[in-house]
Amino acid sequence: MRLYVRPLLLSCSVQSFITYSLWSREQSSGAIARMDVRKRVGRNVRRLRVESELTQEELADKAGIHQTYLSGVEGGKRNPSVVVLDRIASGLGVDIAKLLER
What we know:
By secondary structure, this protein is α+β, with helices and mostly antiparallel strands. Helix content is 53%, strand content 18%.
């Protein structure tokens, strides 16, 4: 495994510090993968909601979450917990795995 050094610049009113973070390439690309997961979940939630002919408000009510939170999940902006994903899946009448499909 190759490691590379990523400099992190932190400034302070008294002096400046330079620190280094040792991340493997796999770890650094993980942040990108997590962002893609949020978008994938959002697309799946929206697709399943539309197929079920539910509005965001109706699904949010069934799942016991706020409509604006559901909107953020569908837009890939929110990072819902497994508990929230389970509630959304239950509201849609599907298995939670359906929300994670590619």
